[in-house]
């Protein structure tokens, strides 16, 4: 039996703030970054995971991952649901480390990175892409991966088992469908705040030509600008392409309602992150006021307890799971089960560094083994930084192709790690930073 | 004008897990710790602050504080509300660092430690204890310290100003009252889970003899044990002393209601942390089911947005502010204003390392300048680790004495810092850890 013999953690940063890619109302100059973890083994493949950040503080995130090494180094390589559940329980259950969250922020993202690296390892050893590896588990095994603590008033273990068993018939057909057709994507590329109107129009036209059925625009800087940009986008793509908007937490509750009321004539499909990701009741008030415009959130929703409440309160109608914000595959399975219980579509947050690579596995696993449904589901697509990954996400005709390489796709090229290591990689030493 | 010329951050840990002091249902073996920050200046006193943790991960917390140095080093020593507001806004507003929270967990506690150290510095330079320094500011100055983002649906700046103006008359008399009588305390010392029944009875008797009007017991390990221990405590202290219980997040919603229903015959005053601190709706359901038993929470409530919702939803009837969990004095002022708006008493969480030292200032400031009221308010008291502080909290006759030394009281003795530094202090190198 192989053993994890070492954990390596790297601070990797891309100088994206030099362009305006990624600019929005709350994040004017992100340097997309990853606290990158490698689980080295004494036989067979290594495992790769990451936490995504946007620059300063990525070293703190890396330190948090390193702090988990005693739980991992010396451990048998996990190969099945039992071992992957045990690891997650041990990490989340460290009573001293737990104080730093609990189950939120830097400490929780560190757990997520390690748990995801362990899943990568297990899937590589099984010779399967993560989505197929997870979908090869029985409903009983899948339920054993989930921490139901704090969920039972909304979702019991028995209910979860029922959901998973109901999705057992048809797994094979849905896998075949994904392999043939992929999974629906939408494009955020046209909509960054820093782009000119001409660039917005050009990229929106391109998105439609490329087969995307939805695009997304960043809003929240200036309401007159947003009205002009959304009107332009709507005129460019016509009435049948969905246009979502994303405020990146810019507003208070009343401001969100007022601002979106001005944008409503241009038929926005959803408003994403209208306010603080912590404000369950605020999201519920906004959702009620703005219906039928949908409310979407998730990239900053810290854990399953917050998603539970957002669902209970009617605070979201689109759940934007994030691969690297919560406690890894295990907690994302809990979140997929909650969404299935409440009948809310999951449309993952992606972009960033490696998020497209990771979330495609989660959506495809959901379609095969959890919700069994892809109606109104779509995965964010930003065509950015994929060249740094050994198993990059690929979108064709507006759809994510099903990944086929073993693992969870977080591995970066060695050349990338050397070049973009912060602060000592040549990308940072050879050119002035900021 | 003096300048902050350096920031020093120390990982300080006390081996409290060798005894069972501090043991509860979720934290069986804490090593009470502080990520301790010193702001060095080129003239006049230095400033001291800390984040409290319970052991593993304290190094991560220290790294997060260090990451804030570029915002602080080289800055003019803050002396007034304007400068203290500017610092808080700059730290919370760092758009890259914000991704690590936002405004929660390790990153946010780091901001709190630095902001509190800056307040310590300002109060020392003013020659006043923090509570008096803050209470010397005008309502307009106090309001300028607060970040109202995400609060306006529950508390506007104008409402906050109204609350502060209403408390202006009588400030002098209330200061005099605090200096004469101190501020009510309650004792957690009898109630740790690891203590025997005999020790519980002995310490409960002692608490009453010492003048405390309330004691608190940890619960949530075993229901039969809890019934026996609460019955014993009630028999020991009689009907007129309040007995609160604290589950430290042990339960799901339905379990909390069922468990507390078994304890109800012994008249518990409040149930503290019945479930996840993130579960606003869960707290509301528990509060509704258990009334008139009060629901208390706060030590793990991550920021003002969560407190806002707990108040909006009726999820707490006692607000347990924590000096070192949120973004420092500025955010705690927002939380005091929210509590005043909703008419909920603030009973701070203390114990830990330095929390008693810090929170007494916040409660006294609240009494003088915010709520103007001390009805049903009481500050937790744990007689533990105070000897390490240069301006230790002192309780006499069940009341916190008003501190008189300039500053915010987070400073530790140099000998303590040398001895308990982790991992290289003699406390850790000379005796086996764990």
TrEMBL record, chains A, B:
Catalytic activity: L-fuconate = 2-dehydro-3-deoxy-L-fuconate + H2O
GO MF terms held by the record: L-fuconate dehydratase activity; magnesium ion binding
GO biological process, alphabetically ordered: amino acid catabolic process; carbohydrate catabolic process
Domain of life: Bacteria
Alphabetized UniProt keyword annotations: Lyase, Magnesium, Metal-binding
EC number: 4.2.1.68
Domain spans labelled Mandelate racemase/muconate lactonizing enzyme C-terminal: 197-293
Keyword Cell cycle: no
SMART domains: MR_MLE (SM00922)
Enzyme class: lyase
Listed cofactors: Mg(2+)
Family matches, as InterPro entries: Enolase-like_C_sf, Enolase-like_N, Enolase_C-like, L-fuconate_dehydratase, Mandel_Rmase/mucon_lact_enz_CS, Mandelate_racemase_C, Mandelate_racemase_N_dom, RHMD-like
Cross-referenced PANTHER family: ENOLASE SUPERFAMILY, MANDELATE RACEMASE (PTHR13794), MITOCHONDRIAL ENOLASE SUPERFAMILY MEMBER 1 (PTHR13794:SF58)
Protein name stated in the entry: L-fuconate dehydratase
């Amino acid at each position: 039996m192989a053993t994890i013999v070492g954990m390596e953690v790297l601070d990797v940063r891309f100088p994206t703030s030099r362009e305006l890619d990624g600019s929005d109302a709350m994040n004017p100059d992100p340097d997309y970054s990853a606290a990158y973890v490698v689980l080295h083994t004494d036989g067979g493949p290594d495992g790769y995971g990451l936490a995504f950040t946007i620059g300063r503080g990525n070293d703190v995130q890396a330190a948090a991952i390193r702090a988990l090494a005693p739980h991992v180094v010396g451990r048998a390589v996990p190969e099945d649901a039992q071992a992957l559940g045990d690891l997650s329980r041990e990490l989340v259950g460290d009573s001293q480390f737990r104080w730093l969250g609990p189950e939120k922020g830097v400490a929780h993202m560190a757990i997520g990175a390690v748990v995801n690296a362990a899943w990568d390892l297990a899937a590589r050893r099984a010779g399967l892409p993560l989505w197929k590896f997870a979908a090869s588990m029985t409903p009983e095994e899948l339920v054993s991966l989930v921490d139901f603590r704090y969920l039972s008033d909304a979702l019991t273990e028995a209910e979860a088992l029922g959901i998973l068993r109901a999705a057992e018939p048809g797994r094979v057909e849905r896998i075949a469908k994904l392999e043939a057709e992929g999974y629906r994507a939408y494009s955020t590329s046209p909509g960054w705040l820093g782009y000119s109107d001409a660039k917005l129009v050009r990229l929106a036209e391109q998105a439609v030509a490329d087969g995307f059925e939805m695009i997304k625009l960043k809003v929240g800087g200036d309401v007159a600008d947003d009205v002009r940009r959304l009107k332009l986008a709507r005129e460019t793509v016509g009435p049948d392409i969905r246009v979502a908007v994303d405020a990146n937490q810019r507003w208070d509750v009343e401001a969100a309602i007022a601002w979106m009321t001005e944008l409503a004539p241009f038929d926005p499909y959803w408003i994403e992150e209208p306010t603080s990701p912590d404000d369950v009741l605020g999201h519920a008030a906004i959702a009620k006021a703005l219906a039928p415009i949908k409310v979407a959130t998730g990239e900053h929703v810290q854990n399953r307890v917050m998603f539970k409440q957002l669902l209970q309160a009617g605070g979201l109608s689109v759940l934007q799971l994030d691969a690297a914000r919560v406690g890894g595959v295990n907690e994302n399975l809990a979140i997929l089960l909650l969404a299935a219980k409440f009948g809310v579509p999951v449309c993952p947050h992606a972009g960033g560094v490696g998020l497209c690579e990771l979330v495609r596995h989660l959506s495809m696993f959901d379609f095969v083994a959890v919700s069994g449904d892809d109606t109104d589901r779509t995965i964010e697509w930003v065509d950015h930084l994929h060249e740094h990954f050994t198993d990059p996400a690929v979108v064709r005709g507006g759809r994510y192709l099903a990944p086929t390489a073993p693992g969870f796709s977080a591995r970066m090229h060695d050349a990338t790690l050397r070049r973009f290591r912060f602060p000592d990689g040549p990308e940072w030493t050879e050119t002035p930073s900021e």
